[in-house]
Amino acid sequence: MLIELMGLRKILIPFTILGLMAILYMNFMHWNEPAESYYNSMYLVNRTTTVFNGILLVFALIIVFLSANFYKDEQNHWSDYLAIYMFAVCGAMLMVGAHHLLMTFIGIEILSVSLYVLAGSNRKKLESNEAGMKYFLMGAFASGILLFGMVLLYGATGTLHYEKLSTFLYSHTTLNIGFLYSGLILILIGFLFKVSAAPFHFWSPDVYQGSPSLVTAFMATVAKIAAIASLYLVLNQVFVPLHHLYDVVLIIVSIATICIGNILAIIQSNFKRMMAYSGISHAGFMLVGILAVDFNHWDLIAYYAAGYGIANLIGFGVAIVVFKSMQNENISAFNGLFFKRPILAVTLTIALLSMASIPPMAGFWGKYYVLSAALSKDLLLLVLIAIVNTVLSVYFYFKVFVAIYARRADNTPIDVSGWYKGFLILLTLVLIAISLMPDMIARCL
Amino acid sequence: MREYIFYFLALVSVISALMVVFSRNPIHSVLYLVVCFFSIAGHYLLLNAQFLAVVHVIIYAGAIMVLFLFVIMLLNLNKESEPHKPIIIKFASVISASLLVLVLIAAMVNINPAADSHPTLHTIGMVRELGDTLFKEYLLPFEISSVLFLTAMVGVVLISKKES
């Protein structure tokens, strides 16, 4: 905002990108050093948090690139939008790096408050107002439940620090059972709301549909992956001694999430709503990962998250320009895209193939790793249901392909600049690269 | 001496709380609520929680009460416009309030006050202790929460800025 006052609006986005790159560099500076915690061990830096934070930062960079095109018509709000996006990224990184439940909570709140504002940021559109309002009310309740869970946990154990909590849980197995269990359940509910898992997913389709498309892309990638990573770290660093309690909950929740996400996605005609349900089902798969993957193999979840996120960003990147020109957010907006803009059509196809987990793509490898980890834990029923649902999911992604390749195009032209296309092609190449070398990436981590 | 002050404050807070509910004029209700908040702040002082007492007065008796008064003035409530509630709603609210009281009493019965004699308990609410913990152990969350407020403020600006 300072920059805007000085009349330097043009350098705003390059400045933000430079800043993000600097943070990305600082993030990986500690790559080969042992884990270290800062500020009275409130914030932890180790391999896991570095990789998850790196993924979040790369996605934030992509979002900032896309925002230059998306907010072209509202240049006097640019600085506000960018500031809120950056605050949201800050919250997401705090969620991942937190080593104290209080920090986790503050990170979640920063991310959520930014998203409430962004969801309602298109003031003239009724759906956007509705989305902001709904997200705010539901999210505030979820945060309250999460905080209450933490309070009960504090009452039972006397600390919220990850390491102290986990040593406490290992040494006292029967103390204050009621407080501890209800606290754990409430914390789980709060997190499951944030990742939009099945019984707590009702906000997600409405909010995704109503929000401006770029905000939807941000929610589907940065917010969801931050929540998944944070849940994974909390469960694996703190609550491992209680895993017999939450395992059953997570199994049921992930089965329900995968089924509901895929089955309801089939009947959607709005693209963003369909992506919301597909995001729900992917969250279910990542929950299977949280459930089944050992803490030493966290790279599998990071791989899944990276593949899912990049495919999502390409999909929304194409959708943003198409929706803007067609003034329509249904799947029918893609009718005959291949004949109008072949490059956009092909990038979208590759992204959706990855999300539908067709074999050589990143989505397939992600699901393969997660489900084979689940198989090694004897969760046969879960794996079977997940595979059936994967096959089902191909159907609604193919509805988009039918629209792109087989439907007749109308005459509305689609404006897209050359560098935007180049950027999408670059992203697609990155997606193909991580699809072709899953083993190598997993070994590097 | 302490006990007399406690009974005095307890009497004041219970009576003013009852007056909040029973007085007909909403402005009177709000003023009684202010009295109630002040007496509760007195209880905090008795329990050695100075910071909590000050914050309670500033935020509740100050900011929130002013908000209440503004809302009441803007709504223009008076006796004539007050809707008459049907008997079944009164009945239901009495039952639910009694249930809440029952739950609270059930929870309070099991509290054993003798267990609260932890050595640091008497100083834990003092401003010095609080500052020590806040600026040493919890420095990062304290500083980071400023980002949270900044986000909220920028968000308000973004949503309410006039189109130019």
Compact summary:
The complex is a heterodimer of chains A (445) and B (164). Chain A has 445 residues and is an all-alpha fold. Chain A has helices at residues 2-5, 12-29, 47-70, 78-97, 101-119, 126-157, 162-171, 177-194, 203-210, 213-237, 243-266, 271-292, 298-326, 337-340, 342-355, 362-376, 380-405, 418-436, 438-444; strands at 36-38, 43-45.
Notable traits:
heterodimer; A: 445 residues; two-stranded antiparallel sheet; 19 helices; 2 strands; globular; disordered N terminus; B: 164 residues; mainly alpha; 6 helices
Question: How would you describe what is shown here?
Answer:
In chain A, 76% of the residues lie in helices and 1% in strands. Chain A is built from 19 helices and two strands. Chain A has helices at 2-5, 12-29, 47-70, 78-97, 101-119, 126-157, 162-171, 177-194, 203-210, 213-237, 243-266, 271-292, 298-326, 337-340, 342-355, 362-376, 380-405, 418-436, 438-444, and strands spanning 36-38, 43-45. A two-stranded antiparallel sheet of chain A has the order 1-2. In chain A, a hairpin with a 4-residue loop joins strand 1 and strand 2 (43-45). The two termini of chain A are 38 Å apart. Chain B has 164 residues and is mainly alpha-helical. Chain B has two domains: 1-81, NADH-ubiquinone/plastoquinone oxidoreductase chain 6, subunit NuoJ (Four Helix Bundle (Hemerythrin (Met), subunit A), Up-down Bundle); 122-164. Chain B contains six helices and no strands. The termini of chain B are far apart. Classes of the chains: A mainly alpha (445), B mainly alpha (164).
